[in-house]
Amino acid sequence: MKVEIILSAIGVNEVFLPRINLNILQSFVYSIFSPERAQFLHDSGYQYQNRTFKLFTFSWLVGKKNRIEEKQIVFQSPVKLVLSSPLTPVLEDLASGALNKERLRLGNNNLICNAVKVLKEPEPSGDMQIKTLSPITCYSTMYKKDGTPYTVYYSPFEEEFKEQIHNNLVKKFSLVFPEENLPESKVVIKPIGKPRLQVALFRADDPRPIKGWWGNFHLTGPKELLSVAIDAGLGAKNSSGWGCVTPIKGKDEPEGA
User: What is the pTM of this model?
Assistant: First the structure.
């Protein structure tokens, strides 16, 4: 399930964001949650073996870019943000928080929520096309001989990317539907056309780049797993603004950064 939050700047006609802004968007989302839910998601989340999942994701900020400067992006007000989760209470909490707060703080911007819309998406099937609302990232942590860790990111054309997409969905499905039997067949993801590489930093004081992919993709597999993909996101770092996707019925253009 997805909701779209429409936000207007208070007293001005523009919204200013640093070019490195994913941590700002994530902090904004957490600020909308009730304090209890924000603390739970931030501190604990949902545990699967030795992994923690937040079970929500969000798009990158959507709006008309008036200009892109050296250190910031200037959007024309209003702007939109899409939030997605397989857990209805999570989205209800977000919607309530956005609508009930007199003002919302996004970086240095004071905003007001004009509306929250429930987005109607095509019903997931076992064979569908999707487009990215934020890039999909898959990676492994490797270690050098001296024990120093480093990150290897995968492209949609590599088998490890496809394996991680499926394995990640299995874990999310087990958390969302703990009493249900795991579907037997696998999810297979294939790019449609040429995906576009996105390299971004999560925050300005962290020099480690994150690599992900914008584009349209073809998904096949059990519709139960594909439903989780649409709601919880594909790949890794979903709660940091990666892997938010939506179904498309036919030919569509990939979203841009």
Answer: 0.93
